[in-house]
């Protein structure tokens, strides 16, 4: 059953071509449990990201116009991996039609592309094409390609404009927003990079139609992360409608995308360089990044984050910070999405060693984002190795 809208659209979030919002309240026998915004398919949502260099995240279907976000550019480098070749070529055509010269640069897919050698090859191409400070870079793809594209842009001439065109769920709700860019090194995940805000972000929900289901599920790990740290309505929507939650053409996934972006936009606007509050976005990532490294980057980031969320909740419960029910909710929500909740017990020594180079560590002191309750993140400083291992044993039976 649907009814009138519950309240105002969150601050900074506007539907650009619909002056009359059609938000709706979904009511169950237990009462109102969340809102399902019923948007027309052609509606575009604009989510503002504040800070010194503000920009907008555009969410809609069949959005595809980065040149508009980059006035004055004469050349546009378009980085893409093979699965997005068709999209990249369409974009090159639009770019040409806008009077801008496209430079298509194919890079290796997924984590193989997040390598300094790949970035160096891109810089060679920019140099050969005579890229100046008014020219710009576009990354078309998942989080791996947009992290690389942002890093290439951050370093070229010490910083040119860039636009991520996010084509994976994880890219839309997380990687493309917030200006964290970078590559992996032998020592670990994302250890070399730069903070470099984009000129705008494009999230074309139509691209999700071709995203493999495993990658869709991986993106949901970052969505529910936002639910646990800041917006419990996300969890209620996923729990109530687990099938609709992963239907790329439906309104529930769109609401989840917009809510997660809103959480991220709010956090990064207040702490762009991660000097404090932004660390909450790293919930679940201390273990996740260690798993990714141990697995030679063959695990999807979102799958590793799923295990990391369960681990962080277990650690918080063992540290006396979190109640068992909320810990169990992590396991249930993550599991219901078909995401992994456990990892190999024999990997502990390598996992622990890798967690020590997590960016949140200070000297020899490990620091974890944990919850003291739903939407109440805090930092657990210097947990003992015994405590860390005890929590690990519970997720690595
Ligand atoms: N910068 C940040 O703030 C931030 C945040 C979260 C994650 N990340 C990074 O993002 C990366 C993970 O991103 P991801 O989950 O998008 O993985 P990914 O970029 O590896 O993409 C997953 C796979 O899906 C393919 N793909 C993407 N869009 C598609 C589409 N529309 N149709 C068909 N195939 C498509 C890709 O080519 C790839 O094979 C990791 O490197 C992670 O560290 C960065
Ligand atoms: O944007 C952030 O800040 C995040 O921590 C978001 C994470 O989901 C993302 O995976 C990020 O790339 C991790 O950052 P890192 O600094 O730990 O490498
Ligand atoms: Zn992440």
Automatic annotation (TrEMBL):
Positions of NAD(+) binding: 109-114, 143-147, 167-168, 180, 189, 207-210
Top-level taxon in the UniProt lineage: Bacteria
3-dehydroquinate synthase N-terminal domain boundaries: 105-216
Cofactor(s) demanded: Co(2+); Zn(2+); NAD(+)
Amino-acid biosynthesis recorded as keyword: yes
InterPro entries reported for this sequence: Dehydroquinate_synthase (IPR050071), DHQ_synth_AroB (IPR016037), DHQS/DOIS_N (IPR030960), DHQS_C (IPR056179)
Domain 3-dehydroquinate synthase C-terminal: 219-361
Catalytic activity: 7-phospho-2-dehydro-3-deoxy-D-arabino-heptonate = 3-dehydroquinate + phosphate
Keyword Metal-binding: yes
Principal location listed in the UniProt entry: cytoplasm
EC numbers on record: 4.2.3.4
Positions bound to Zn(2+): 222, 285, 301
Stretches for region Disordered: 1-22
Any Gene Ontology biological process: chorismate biosynthetic process
Manner of cofactor binding, per the entry note: Binds 1 divalent metal cation per subunit. Can use either Co(2+) or Zn(2+).
Protein name: 3-dehydroquinate synthase
Species, as recorded: Salinispora arenicola
């Amino acid at each position: 059953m649907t009814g009138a809208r519950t309240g105002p659209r969150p601050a900074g979030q506007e539907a650009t071509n619909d002056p009359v919002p059609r938000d709706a309240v979904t009511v169950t026998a237990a009462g109102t449990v969340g809102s399902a915004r019923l948007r027309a398919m052609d509606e575009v949502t604009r989510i503002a990201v504040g800070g010194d260099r503000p920009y907008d995240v555009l969410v809609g279907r069949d959005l595809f116009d980065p040149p508009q976000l980059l006035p004055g550019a004469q050349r546009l480098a378009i980085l893409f991996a093979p699965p997005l070749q068709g999209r990249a070529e369409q974009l090159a055509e639009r770019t040409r039609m806008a009077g801008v010269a496209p430079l298509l640069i194919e890079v290796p897919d997924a984590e193989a592309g997040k390598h300094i050698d790949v970035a160096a090859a891109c810089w060679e191409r920019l140099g050969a094409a005579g890229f100046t400070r008014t020219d710009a870079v576009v990354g078309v793809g998942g989080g791996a390609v947009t992290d690389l594209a942002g890093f290439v842009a951050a370093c070229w001439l010490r910083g040119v404009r860039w636009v991520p065109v996010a084509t994976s769920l994880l890219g839309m709700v997380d990687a493309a927003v917030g200006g964290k860019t970078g590559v992996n090194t032998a020592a670990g995940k994302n250890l070399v990079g730069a903070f470099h805000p984009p000129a705008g972000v494009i999230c074309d929900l139509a691209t999700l139609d071709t995203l493999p289901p495993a990658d869709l599920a991986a993106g949901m790990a970052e969505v529910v992360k936002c639910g646990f740290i800041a917006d419990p309505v996300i969890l209620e929507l996923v729990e109530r409608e687990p099938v609709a939650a992963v239907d790329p053409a439906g309104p529930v996934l769109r609401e989840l995308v917009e809510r997660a972006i809103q959480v991220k936009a709010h956090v990064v606007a207040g702490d762009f360089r991660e000097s404090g509050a932004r660390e909450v976005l790293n919930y679940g990532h201390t273990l996740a990044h260690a798993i990714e490294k141990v697995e030679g980057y063959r695990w999807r980031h979102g799958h590793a984050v799923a295990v990391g969320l369960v681990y962080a909740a277990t650690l918080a419960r063992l540290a006396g910070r979190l109640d068992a029910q909320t810990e169990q909710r992590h396991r249930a929500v993550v599991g219901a999405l078909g995401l992994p909740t456990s990892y190999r017990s024999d990997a502990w020594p390598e996992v622990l060693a890798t967690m020590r180079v997590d960016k949140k560590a200070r000297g020899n002191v490990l620091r974890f984002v944990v919850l003291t309750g739903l939407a109440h993140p805090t930092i657990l400083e210097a947990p003992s190795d015994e405590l860390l291992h005890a929590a690990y044993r519970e997720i690595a039976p």
